[in-house]
Design brief:
The protein is mainly alpha-helical. Helix content is 78%, strand content 0%. Helix 5 packs antiparallel against helix 6. Keywords: Membrane, Transmembrane, Transmembrane helix.
Length: 237
Amino acid sequence: MYDQTERPAFGGGAVFMAALRLLRHHALALIGFAALANLALALLSTGVSLALTGTASGPGGLLEYIFGPLIFALLVLRSSDALAGAQRPLGEQLRQVLAQAWPLIALSLAASLITAFGLLLLVVPGLYAAAVLLPLTPVILFERAGWEGLARSYALARPYAWPIVGVVLRMTLVGLVVLIPLILLMLPETAGGGGLLVLLLSVLGGAALVALYAVAGYMIYLRLRELRDGGVSDVFR
């Protein structure tokens, strides 16, 4: 165990750039998959809401809390496989995710609530919570942490929480760069007749952000494991 003076640097900038490189080199496998999965989920939730209440917004939205974490977990696995140069069938990846389905769903919701509560109280506690819980999905998937996932994620990330906050802020900045133009395009004054194009861009933009968070979460987890267990991967150089 390193003390504060001996602890090696986390290298948040290098981790973030490694995530961007992986996302760029495997855009179709990651962003394309995220777009198709999120679109299918949106159609499913809308269909359920229409069937139950006759409106597009309704109880079908609850499906996003169930399937959203599973889609995110699949993106984390696809990030890991892309970095390793592996091409596993989707069915094999899905089986690995479903084996940890309930902890992924429940603990992802808990992590979101903890982070949101921290942001409502003060911004800094929310950022800290987001940082220490960002490795949650990889911890559950690769370490089979199950219901101990929150505690294991916190223990792994806590020594480097503030450098990870830096990565979270970088991702937030990228999110603003992507989302603000899309929001402006969707305004009635600017949408005009390009509704379909705006919808397509919004789907791709949202998918890119989800994929970025999944890739960055995996890269942060990988870097934390290296710092804990020893060794430095060339991917961060």
